[in-house]
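Researcher: Batch entry, complex prediction.
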Amino acid sequence: MLAYREKDNLIHKLHPLAAVAYISIIIILSLIFSHPVYLLGLLLAVGTVIIASGNFREWTPYLLISLGMITVIMLVNAVFVQAGSTVLFYGPRVPVLGKIRITLEAICFGIGMGIRLLVIVSAFCFYTYAVHPDKALKLFSKFGNKSVLAVTLSTRLFPLMIRDVRRITEVQRCRGVKLDTGSRWQRVKNRLPVINVLLLSSLERSLQLAESMQARGYGSGKRTCYTRDLWRPRDCLIFSAAVLSLLTGIWAVWQGWAGYTYYPRLESLQLNDLKMAAVIVLALTVPTVLSWGWKKWPLLKSKI
Amino acid sequence: MKIKIFAAILVFLGLLLAVSVIPVNPLYNVNWALFSSVVIGLAMLAFFRCFEKSAVTSKEIALISTMAALAAVSRIPFAAIMSVQPTTFIVMITGYVFGAQTGFMVGAIAALVSNFFLGQGPWTPWQMYCWGLCGVSAALLAGRQKGFKLSTFIILAGFWGYLFGWIMNIWHWVGFVYPLTLETFIATYLASFTFDTFHAVGNVIFTVLLGKSFYRALNRFKNKFSIIYIDC
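Model: Structure tokens for the complex:
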């Protein structure tokens, strides 16, 4: 049911704090950078990590969907934005917009935004497939154990309810309710009792759930902990590399290296500005390198 | 006390806006997608903190997670049809019966949990916020009238079809549209009009079909579990 699948590699065995910190730093950096080379660097880093975590197959539909979105963004941007100065060609006259000018700058801006979108989508894809939701939620249970408990319970109830829906429709079918034949309106109408039965049985179950929680002493005294995630040297390495890249990124933005002006004329690329991009990419590919070493080198595996 | 907190929030929001608009400071022209997400996150944090502070019993937690799971499950069969789903209705009716806090939590958790299965994205906090507010507004409506009035509930549900889209549009506009001018703003809102109408019509249909029976079931359940313990 859950999108997450357990896989036997280093990245799936990370402490959730390291993984969540890594992902949020990628997203923050992708939002504060506007330089296409820096954004490409982030994409490179997150892509190698996804491949190292063995989720390439899951990543491809995300890539395809976002490529479609990028095309739309690029087209809309090219048609609607008239800010650039290098005109590639003139389009027809349109009532509201006036004469359309397709400019190189608008297309490049669309591409830059597209790379940013790709980075964010990939980071969320990585989160969906490589971090166990329960483990990630447990990070927050220190600050709000009630809300986290509610979220965890409801994640668990979700597949249960889908099974319930199947059971209830099966029972209705046995009783001769026509769920698959008749007009569309008739089918919808016949399915409504399913939702009502589902509501009643779920409410009944929630009362039992509450009673069993009460019986096991929920809310009495200090909370105990069933499993504990270990904070290993690898987590330390990845976490500090991610923090290093965040600091470098903020510094690069501060100095204006990671910014880029598309309008009115494309800025030329300065090699000097790109040094920090290399540092950031190196720091963010630490998980990939460690994962590779973890597979090839038993000594490293035993040390981290 | 309440006025003080309210004033503090206003001052804080004003400062945040000032920091992003006044030219001479390093945060000038900060990324608006990031900025708006921070504001939304802070708003939600206030609701969650309120929930943590209150004395919540195991029954309420079980109820919140059950209703959130129900709202989340009901999103799945309709995922193919954009923006028509009974989730908004279920969140609203829960808020209507059980109050603002439960309504917000059910909405926020439904969005979060359904996205565990449909895929998390930068839209998750915005959906959490929107559905949370659906629950809160329904609870506010319940405070103004007795029992369940289909007519007012339908108006609110239909209105939320549009408001939901309008709040989500802010994210879409600041995230992907350039330049941020009045024209592009209006264009974004016009573009979403059809989807919002679908959402509103869906909400109204689900309210008409399920409103009464859901209200009765939830109300009965509420009476069943509200036990007052008397310390002797």
